[in-house]
Please model this.
Amino acid sequence: MNKGNTNNNNINKETVFLRQAEASDIGALEQLLNRCYRQTEGWTNEADLIGGIRITQDELARTIANPTHYLFVYPKTTTGERDGEETGELLGCIAVDIKVNTDSNETTYNKSAYIGMFAVHPVLQGQGVGNVILQAAETFASRHLQSDGQTSDKKPARLTMSILSHRPELLSYYHRRGYELNGNKMPFPNDGNNGEPKRQDLELLELEKIVN
Model:
């Protein structure tokens, strides 16, 4: 992705649209995610906390092939509208991983969706584009979970996500959108597969939002 390539004259939050990712998007997705998370652009990057790459093409291919994992992209078009011709550049993405667990011992039915791989091109950050993408993913997850036919289930669906510790501005962003820390956390994996942590006390904190 050419850093000077994105012209946002025809782009605003009213024209944002998503489609499901395809194999042909893998290269552009890899560039977008690694740029947004690992380079010092925009306010959402993790460059001060983690080095190395964010994701590989193989990981993206497995995600797209997973039938319970929905990866959505916001493609750039020649007009900035859905009906324009796609240029091959991606302006945003988000993933919804549907998780349904049946506990046969207690005959309970737990429904949740994990939201991840959320990224907005640095040039478009701070313009409401991310809010639209997140809302669209939440709506998709909620409708998907509530349409499973389990009408006897009394438990509401949960949306979950993980963020890095030491990111108070990001935590505030999600607080404003109804997410709360649920107490679950784990040390950031130092296995070389998730980037290289730049501080020893780095953790992944889980947030959740209840969807009735």
